[in-house]
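>> received
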Amino acid sequence: MCGSKWRGWIRQCISTARLSVLVNWHPTEDLAMEKGLRQGDSLSPFVFTIAAVGFSKMLERGCSMGLTEGISHEIVMEQEELSDSDEEIEENVEFECEEMADSDGEEGAGFEPVAEVEDKLLDCFDGLRSLLSMLLSALLIKRKSFLGRCFHLGKSILNPISEDVVFRAICVNLKQRRWSFLEKNLPSLTNAIASRVLCEFQNSPQLALEFYNWVGDKKSVLHSLESSCSVIHVLVNSRRYDDALSLMGNLMTVNGLSPLEVLEALNNSYGICESSPAVFDALVRACTQIGATVGAYEVIMKLQIEGCCVTIHAWNNFLSHLIKVNEIHRFWMVYKKMVSYGYMENVNTFNLVVHALCKDCKLQEAMSVFYRILKSGIWPNAVTFNMMVDGACKMGDMDLALMLVRKMEIMSAGSIKPNSVTYNSLIDGFCKIGRIAVAEELRNEMMKIDIEPNVRTYATMIEGYSRAGCLEEALRLCDEMVERGLLPNSVVYNSIMHWLYKEGDVDGASLVFTDMSDKQIPLDKFTCSILTRGFCRNGYITKALKFLNKVLENNLIEDAFSHNILINFLCKSNNFAAARQLLARMYVHGLVPDAVTFGTLIDGHCKEGNIEIAVQIYEKMVKGEEKPNLLIYNSIINGLCKDGLVDVARSLVDVLQRMGLVDTITYNTLINGYFNCGKFDKAFKLSTEMQMLEF
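>> returned
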């Protein structure tokens, strides 16, 4: 083994960045370019490292080929001599180090050129020290004097671990964002090294994310699930949830991984990255964001089975998602399961329960839960009260809504007061039942208690006045909101245009639309549908066609909603050629017709007795993987009956009955068809059958 003084001297050289000693043999000399290190070159330490690694590989190859056999033999034969020489070398090194110290004191000026270079090298040596120590120790174990005064050849050579070398080199350069150097390491970059680098930068999440994205941009390198999960753990630990959710979403939507596959990978890297349970909550949220309802539930259940449960926040997120997708029945199943697992509900859980009950129009049950919240010692927040108020308003129970608002401060022990959301719900409720005067009083009350009406407040009031036929008052409110510095949005403009068209004021509606365009307020699908219906209702079919053509050319909408309105008017005016032409233009511009589009065309042709064309459209619809609904089947049954094909219609009804796709209209249409054909006995028989089936 190396003597302590020898090791100490090497350690001092490396730790003080004085590699000039190793190259020039004396610290007072300038760095000689021909020796391998150049003054001012910040990459010089890496030149030395590469040389050391290369020398190690050369020795390894020489040993494998037997080229060092003589040296090894000499070392074995002269073991005792080596021990003596070790002590001699240590004494020589000690003497040289003392000489260096003396010369340093006597010729301090000789250090100045080297010191300048060394200062430049110090920054990049922090991460390199341990690497050089490893390399030098590998070369100096059990040595014989070799290559002059620095390196000794040992009878056994410890090869540096190449993965560690690449790993440390990447970390050092990543800290300083030296992307050009990192580029050169791409051929040696493996997924295992990438994962290690990402975990290494736990406390620098931005740098970890930059490295992850940089690697992802290189076509020659593909991220593994392991490296992706490593950066997700880093991001979650640093509370950068949006970035983590985005990555998880991409793994499932772009890479095609299932939520359970992502969960397994996160579990595998959980301990290595020193993660937290929040990463599993984040996975549930990522699933709900991309609409993977089943996947989110599977993740929760899998973790529950494995004893690594998600928190109440993940359950709340999933319950909220079920309400948004209107799966209220499933909401209650999941809620009961959550309670059975012993989770303690918080105020957000109770808010979701109240919201679900209000959506189910179960106001009394919602009030019971509300009082249970108060009794349980969990103080309701503003969201709780606003949900209750909004639920009461949507049910038309304005007395209950007002009572809740008036007693809000008392019921919350003075901690909660009505806000703009509360008043907007009340104003909307009173406007919908036609009590516009009460709504105006509430708006004035808002301003008295320093709650400024917002755009939604004005939009609700404008819709209320317009619905009541007071368009002048609605326009006055538009001017008032502009004076208050509030810019009307598309909801406000849509409301004004809708009621102007309904009153037949096409010119007035056109002026409002022009003003909307001048203020660069983007159109939405409701704007397009209001304009299309307004033109058609007032007999301006050509204008409607021109408007929709412009909409298609500029890609302003992405669904068939507005086109369905125009196709409906064209079919009602027996202009089927124009309807088919519009349908073709939709295909050309990448706008996919929906069930309403096909249903409108089928119904129009059936009513005109064109049952063959209607069936052709039906077949085209099925080939396009669009599922027909009961309305479409009823239209076809009506067309068959009008064409005298009542028995064919009856066969279709039998098939639909087995599928559970019949209603009163289906039977009434068929009965009417029997009567028109004079088949009264079959009509009465079908009527009896309806009664037995409780239709």
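>> DSSP finds 39 helices and two strands in the chain.
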